[in-house]
Amino acid sequence: MSMPFDLSDKTAIVTGSTKGIGRAIAVALAEAGANVTVSSRDTERVAETEGALADAGHKVLGIPCNVGRKAELQSLVDGSRAKWGPADILVCNAAINPYYGPSMEIPDNIFAKIMQTNIQSQLWLTQMVVPDMQARKDGAIVLVSSIGGLRGSDVIGAYNISKAADIQLAKNLAVELGPNNIRVNAIAPGLVKTDFARALWENPEFADPRITATPMRRLGDPEDIAGAAVFLASGAASWVTGQTLVIDGGATVPV
Description:
Blueprint: E1 11-14, H1 20-31, E2 35-38, H2 43-55, E3 60-62, H3 70-84, E4 89-92, H4 108-136, E5 139-144, H5 157-177, E6 182-189, H6 198-201, H7 204-213, H8 222-233, E7 244-247
Parallel strand pairs: 1-2, 1-4, 2-3, 4-5, 5-6, 6-7
Helix pairs in contact: 1-8, 3-4, 4-5
């Protein structure tokens, strides 16, 4: 039998992949055999991540990139292509949430920055990698959303709007790109213990009730999300597109 999760000879680009969920996904893709291009805004973290994966025997390239800047995204795609060839897999994980407070008071420039980084960049990247995928009639794109995109909030409303848009973007792109055998799916993690969400999971007043309300009675770890990305990028998901896989320990299960 073939190995459906084997990604040997595949090339993956993963944004926001020097820590947290993105790094766990990059490691998992590399362990499945892929050539992995890792990236984030932090040049030192990119170099450290590249070195750590290389020391573990993986095929890795690090390219610093701010996903909110289109020219840097193009440099990321071009640099990865020059090293490995066209991308077979794109994982859009990078996101920001610089505002905590009511949507009624969010400054225009902050709202626009969240939308450009969390949504526009994903569309830009897709537009950049898809021509090669169309030429080969094969490709997998994974957008990392959040269960915030399924809920309302009075303090992270703009972030949640962007994550809901990621879910819809996956559906729209799945319809557009499906005839070329390019699959587009989203992952919606619950509360995961990352630096990005540290203010939430380190606050017992927030975390303890969340854990109690979660059927599995724990918060997530980055590695809990990584396997789903490997699945969606692999041949095991060859007929899966336009879907959002919720990974939250059951937190959003209706009771």
